[in-house]
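Let us walk through a complete example step by step. Step one is to write down the protein sequence. Step two is to encode the small molecule, flavin-adenine dinucleotide, as a SMILES string so that its atoms and bonds are unambiguous. Step three, shown after the inputs, is the structure prediction itself.
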Amino acid sequence: MSFFKIIKYWFTEATHFEGTIVASERIGTRIQKVTIALPSQIAEPFHIGCYIQTIAWGCIPRAYSVATADTRTFTILVSFSGGGAGARFFRDAVVGDKVTCYGPFDDFPYHYGTGRAKVFFATSTGVAPFRRMIEEAIKENVNSVLLLGSPKESDIAFKKEFEELSRKHPSFTFVPCVSDADASWSGARGYVTDQVNGKEEFLGKSDVYICGIPAMTFGVLGALKGIGVPKNQIFVQKFG
Ligand SMILES: Cc1cc2nc3c(=O)[nH]c(=O)nc-3n(C[C@H](O)[C@H](O)[C@H](O)COP(=O)(O)OP(=O)(O)OC[C@H]3O[C@@H](n4cnc5c(N)ncnc54)[C@H](O)[C@@H]3O)c2cc1C
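Step three: the predicted structure of the complex.
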């Protein structure tokens, strides 16, 4: 399909709806967690790993991965780091505001039944698709690790939920990596890319999922290539 046909399809024929913001919460200084209600109840929640194309001010499209979903609502994490139209639209939006949404579009599925452990690499809002994938790994009874990069501890989305999951389920390990940590931080420091060192053997036997801005995804991909993780075990969603 040509570029213009894809655009025409998105804005005329693709499934779209008018959502209503029902909750909006600031996480640290860099993320807005926004819950959008669907116009009516649907049979099943949006698929794991899907994204929604929102339209800011009626004309500017921005894609957001669906972090959580039920049959009436879905939640997205909006980064302020880009500082563009999407960030400003969701920063200023209030409960009750309408948002035109296209999709959902499925392009980052969770791969069931491989028997391999799952390793999830994310920075900031890149954690969105992994919120539900981790629950699937727990249900499948395979080991999983979330390596989540953030400049500050206060900017980590779903921190309490991940800590709770790792307490309840020994098969899940949560490794927040803080690059600009306060002196009191006792967890991992630096970037998620640094975490590849020392885990070569485990990564080589795992399915590896990467989600976030291009600089981070290329960094992790390069590190994985360097240690010979097979391509068919690597799944990427690039935010741009
Ligand atoms: C399939 C898909 C799923 C996506 N899911 C999410 C999501 O769940 N949450 C989310 O916040 N974004 C997500 N994005 C990126 C999102 O669509 C926007 O491009 C991004 O949030 C920046 O939008 P903006 O309007 O604020 O800034 P823009 O005006 O689009 O960009 C301004 C500058 O910021 C850079 N930039 C873009 N994204 C980021 C970022 N996340 N952090 C730092 N710098 C950035 C751009 O390269 C550009 O130089 C996704 C993109 C794709 C393609």
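Step four is interpretation. Residues 51, 62-65, 76-79, 81-87, 125, 128, 213, 237, 239-240 surround flavin-adenine dinucleotide (CB under 6 Å).
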